[in-house]
Design brief:
two-stranded antiparallel sheet; about 30% helix
Length: about 300
């Protein structure tokens, strides 16, 4: 059975200043998502599911339906603030959904096979998709999920702070902890993260999650149970976030499932800030010049 790729594309790009999911960076107007989908198809994925917002649904579908027709099965789900489990409550003053864990939960009715999760605004690399596809088709089980790990120093923006899932592993290369650090920045003295206005140094060699996960559909039960508890505790907060690393951390703590860290030498880059776009576009050109991609991706 071919795995599915779930693309988290519902974020509004507040730090970027626009709808970065469909902002072109390639030589023929390709988006970062285009390169991820191209790599996924080549690696053996059989379906793409996009998590988007109703506000840009028409524009988004027009762009990707035209490109992907006849190449791979495509589905869409919307992440909206009102999409919560029955019987749960939250403050009516809340303006936006609850982040990556909530986004993945939106796809529970259209994914019945092992699946990978990626961010729409991150470039993960050919090797990473090959590694994940092999894991999903040959290794994954209810007892072992997967995650592609990256080196922190290779994921830092030069233009501001970033959010990363900071990972620790055991001798079996299983995650022991994954902590979402929401403000990591390259400072004059090195890389550090800020929490409660306090800065703590962190090694550039630290393994971090870039939200490239491999799951079975069993995850949706974990997500729903944890999200119900989350809303009970934090549903009245205006800016509370339900992050997927936090969900995974609880699954690990409960001893229900291990998470294998899949090492990849793939090149990563992302577009968190508008200033990152130029660097990303240059990196794509270099990959085209090396023959990794054609100059026009969807001929």
């Amino acid at each position: 059975m071919k795995p599915t790729l779930l693309v988290l594309a519902a974020g509004m790009g507040s730090r970027y200043g626009g709808l970065k999911q469909i902002d072109p960076i390639g030589p023929s107007q390709e988006t970062i998502i285009d390169y991820s989908i191209h790599d996924a198809i080549a690696a053996g994925f059989g379906k793409i599911v996009f998590v988007i917002r109703e506000g840009f649904e028409k524009e988004f579908k027009e762009l990707f339906n035209a490109k992907l027709a006849g190449k791979i099965e495509v589905d869409y789900v919307n992440q909206e603030i009102q999409n919560v489990p029955e019987g749960t409550f939250f403050t009516t003053e809340r303006e936006k959904p609850w982040g990556t864990g909530h986004a993945i939960l939106m796809a529970k009715d259209c994914i019945n096979e092992p699946f990978a999760v990626i961010n729409a605004d991150d470039y993960y690399g050919v090797e990473a998709f090959t590694t994940m596809a092999d894991f999903l088709m040959n290794t994954i089980s209810e007892e072992e999920y997967g995650m592609v790990g990256y080196q922190l120093s290779n994921t830092i923006s030069q233009n501001g702070f970033v959010s990363r899932g900071v990972c620790a592993t055991n001798t079996n290369e299983h995650l022991t902890t994954v902590i979402e650090r929401t403000h990591i920045e390259k400072l004059a003295g090195g890389i550090a993260y800020k929490e409660d206005e306090k800065w703590t140094p962190i090694s550039g060699e630290t393994t971090v999650s870039m939200n490239f996960w491999g799951f079975t559909p069993q995850l949706f039960k974990h997500l729903e149970d944890q999200f119900i508890s989350f809303l009970s505790e934090s549903g009245q907060e205006l800016k509370s976030e339900f992050f997927i690393p936090s969900v995974v951390a609880k699954i690990i703590d409960d001893g229900e499932t291990n998470v294998k860290v899949l090492k990849s030498n793939a090149q990563w880059f992302g577009v968190t800030y508008r200033e990152d776009k130029e660097k990303a576009a240059k990196a794509i050109i270099e990959l085209v010049e090396k023959g990794i991609y054609p100059s026009k991706l969807w001929d």
